[in-house]
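Researcher: First entry.
Model:
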Amino acid sequence: MIVSKKLSKFKEIRHGFFNKKGGCSNGIYSSLNCGLGSNDNKKKVIKNLRIVKNKINRYSKNIFLLHQIHSNKFVFIDKNSKHQKKKKADAVITDIPRLPIGILTADCAPILIYDKQRKMIGAIHAGWKGAYKGIISKVINFMIKKGCEKKNILAVIGPCISQKSYKVKEDFKRKFLKKDKRNKVFFKKRKNLIYFDLSKYLKLQLKSLKITNLDTINIDTFPKKNNFFSARRSLHLNHDDYGRNISLIMIN
């Protein structure tokens, strides 16, 4: 379990960015696959989720997970929410204690958010599609409406694919430049190949929203040695599926 030094200063919350180690799955899902949407044995995935929950707090409620769809949709959970059915969205916000909220990734970035005064948390699945569609601004603006203040918000960008591993096509770059010419700073050309900096893109979006208290876990999920599940690496190896990493945050 990897933690943010900045988030760890707040004893009233628990959080963690988990890699693929420490679970019970086998084969291409070895070992801590937390993706119920994968083709892994469901009983093993449920056991892995229990392992993760116990690392955060064994007495907490079950982890709240989403059916992620690379969108700009989010879910807010308060004491009146009914959340038996998994919601289609890519971010979750709550102020309920002992409810761990989780995001699954396999190269996309998990972003964990905490407002130290309002005692509100958020978790965002930020791939390029969701970020491009504005999921970060939607989450931050909603939290502000709920009484959070930008000066009190800390946002942590978790492990994700780094620029040196994120090769993209020309039409991908064109899409970003059409939206804003200043987006060219997120692209680098090397040996006639184009590479995209997802983490930098997310960081600048947060800064443009006046979120200045930031932390970044600079670990590339693509290299095998870093022990993270990676959709791109699985594609490169001709695997027909891949495991999912989980990132969690919870109010004690």
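Researcher: Second entry.
Model:
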Amino acid sequence: MNLSIIIPTYNESRYLDSTIQRIIHHFQSKHITYEVIIVNDGSTDDTEKIARAIARSYNNISLVSYDINKGKGYAVRSGIEQSIGEKILFMDADNSVDISYSDVFLQQKEEFVIASIYLKYAKVHDESFLWRRLLRKISRNIPKYILHINVQDTQRGFKMFQNKHKQLFLEKLTQSKFSFDMEMITIATENNIKIKEIPVNWNNPKRNHVGFRDYVQTLQDVFSIYSKKKRGFYKK
């Protein structure tokens, strides 16, 4: 199996089917074996119903589902546990970074490849509320200064790593919410895993999944990650 694609979902009934069809269309002419793992993170809309129908229709698509919303980090970790691909990619259910970028990611020699909207040639179409965009700008550099992460964009939901690091991430990931990305990068940095950022086009529709409290929680999580880092928790 060349590639495992993990899609964490929470109330994504509007986008999920079109994203799956986009993935299928993209890979149908390529000589790549892949699996898709949809993780339903306690959705309250028709996400589970749609995901279950999709999983029944395709042999290489499976569903992990649970009733209580536990956070994006928990959902991604649940998908990683089930993955068997040589490389493991997780992406957003709305295909905000198009699956076509997986071609570029698969070509990289680095062990951990992440999408970035803060590099030259990246393009952003952001329909989110103004206050959210301002908070995003304010919080962008916090992990760099506190955690000493040499990465321009920690939060894009399109990242790929080699399967040989799967167990390390499963053992060391503790954050279940939106800060799990920063924790993954911290784990990689602490274990000298080579990271490469790729500029992408990011299409962010207006939605209500992330609120002000989530930004506050993420800031608290940064200090929790910092504490673990200082204690040497993230090293093998």
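Model: Note on the second entry: The domain at 3-230 is CATH 3.90.550.10 (Spore Coat Polysaccharide Biosynthesis Protein SpsA; Chain A).
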